[in-house]
Amino acid sequence: MADFVALMGVKGGPAIRPGSHMPTSILVSLGGAVILVDAGLGASRGLCDQGVALTALDAVFVTHLHSDHYLELGPLLHTAWTAGLTREVPVYGPAGLERYWAGFLASMEADIALRIADEGRVPLEPLAALRPLGPDEVIRVGEVTVRAMRNVHPPLCDSFALRFEAGGRAIVLSGDTAYMPEMAAFAAGADLLVHEAMLVDGVDAVIANLGHEDARLRQHILRSHTAAADVGRVAAAAGVGHLAVNHFVPDGFPGFTDADWERELRRHWDGALTLGTDGVRIDL
Ligand SMILES: [Zn+2]
Ligand SMILES: [Zn+2]
After folding, report:
1. Of residues 42, 73, 41, 24, the one with CA closest to residue 249
2. Closest ligand by atom to 160 CA
3. Residue 238: phi, psi to the nearest 5?
4. Which residues lie at CB < 5 A from ion ligand 1?
5. Taking Cα atoms as reference points, which of 19, 20, 24 lies closest to residue 8?
6. What's the distance, CA 205 to chain centroid?
7. Distance (Å) from CA 146 to ligand 1 centroid
8. 115 CA distance to ligand 2 centroid (A)?
9. Which residue, of 31, 129, 137, 265, is most buried by count of CB atoms within 10 Å of its CB?
């Protein structure tokens, strides 16, 4: 397959509503490897819409344990299994992901046992080879070299940006993160940087819409995500070939348009720019 990145869900946060995008999932097709990064709601549909069989996955990465990044991981792996997956798929993620996987398997035990006994399926549990994700390992997926950098996403400690390299190409995904100058070094010279972004003015609209008055939510959003102007700053400092933006906060709220995003992103970035939409494919 050609080298490309598809953003299959570009909404920041777990709630979906009429008019919103889907939560995070990203397809990285690089050096012949098919890699899924995050498995928010819609990941399975998103892969199929990209023409990628669920059985074709070579590896899955979960950047951190917020539900908008792994709520569909179990259903996706289960569906890959019923679609014919019989080989082991490495699943890299923070500590705690193994509890999710064990819990998912337990919740679906009746169905899984039935399909093994009644349909002759292979056991599902060993098809996901859970492996730790951290800044110290260099991970190889076929021809692709993957490095992780701890980003800034409090209160989580295990939250990671990822850099994928193969055949002289580099793709960097910021994950969920506050502005961090180190991201520019991590993304230096990448062909494509996919970075999360928020409009600070929009955060108040999100809070008001939720009717969720607790001040902690506003504080969480502001201290753990990156203002759009700073996203442009990172891209410029890194000298990337192309900036694509995802994990929009707010997303699907009236009153915030592409022009608002572009105005902020363009304060420091005048290079190639993609405002992500669900299903957008960026060829490398
Ligand atoms: Zn998120
Ligand atoms: Zn998060």
Report:
1. 24
2. 2
3. -80, -20
4. 66, 68, 176
5. 24
6. 24
7. 21
8. 34
9. 265
Confidence of residue 191 (pLDDT cuts 50, 70, 90): very high
The percentage of residues in the chain with a pLDDT greater than 70, rounded to a whole number, is 99
Residue 217: pLDDT band by 50, 70, 90 thresholds? Answer: confident
Q: 210 C-alpha to center of ligand 2: Å?
A: 18
- What φ, ψ does residue 273 adopt, rounded to 5°? -140, 130
CATH number at residue 231: 3.60.15.10
Domain of 11? 4-283
CA-CA distances (angstroms) from residue 1 to 26, 45, 165, 266?
16, 19, 16, 33
Give the chain's domain count. 1
Give the integer Cα–Cα distance in Å for 86 and 148: 28
Residues at Cβ < 5 Å from ligand 2 ion = 66, 176
Max distance between CA atoms of the chain, in angstroms, equals 60
d(CA 182, CA 213): 34
Residue type, 3: D
Cβ atoms 232, 267 nearer than 8 A: yes
Nearest by Cα to 161 from 132, 182, 131: 182
Q: How do beta strands 272-275 and 242-249 pair?
A: parallel
pLDDT for 37-48, tens place per residue? 999 999 999 999
Considering Cα of 144, then 88, then 23, then 225, what sign does the dihedral take?
A: negative
